[in-house]
Design a protein that fits this description.
Elements lengths: L2 E5 L2 E4 L4 E8 L7 E7 L6 E6 L6 E3 L7 E6 L4 E6 L8 E8 L9 E4 L3 E6 L1
Parallel strand pairs: 2-11
Antiparallel strand pairs: 1-3, 3-8, 4-5, 4-9, 5-6, 7-8, 9-10, 9-11
Length: 122
């Protein structure tokens, strides 16, 4: 069983950057697909980015393409989300999650972290 803990959230001005980290424990991290999702107040949780087990494949939601980068370091059991050129609409709680398939669908992810708040202020 993988346990996920996010960190790196905080407050940032419009146009700023943040790097989120998701530290994983458990024997199956290195074979897991990892995703980042976010949930803004009053909205459903939405897909942000996904990375394959070896980092060879990534995919992003259209609104973050060119601004966000997902990566992973299997030696450190950690997945990252580098967020640049942040906008107020990026404000949300960000979650990392683990899956056994390369997917953008929330329900295919069975293991979730507790989330980290990102607030982008103008």
């Amino acid at each position: 069983q993988v346990v996920l803990v996010e960190s790196g959230g905080g407050w940032v001005q419009v146009g700023g950057s943040l790097k989120l980290s998701c530290a994983a424990s458990g024997p199956t991290f290195r074979s897991s697909v990892m995703g980042w999702f976010r949930q803004a107040p009053g909205k459903q949780r939405e897909f942000v980015a996904v990375i394959s087990w070896n980092g060879g494949s990534t995919s992003y939601t259209d609104s973050v393409k060119g601004r966000f980068t997902i990566s992973r370091d299997n030696a450190k059991n950690t997945v990252y989300l580098q967020m640049n050129s942040l906008k107020p609409e990026d404000t949300a709680v960000y979650f990392c999650a683990a899956s056994d398939r390369f997917s953008k669908v929330t329900t295919t992810y069975k293991i979730w972290g507790q989330g980290t708040q990102v607030t982008v202020s103008s």
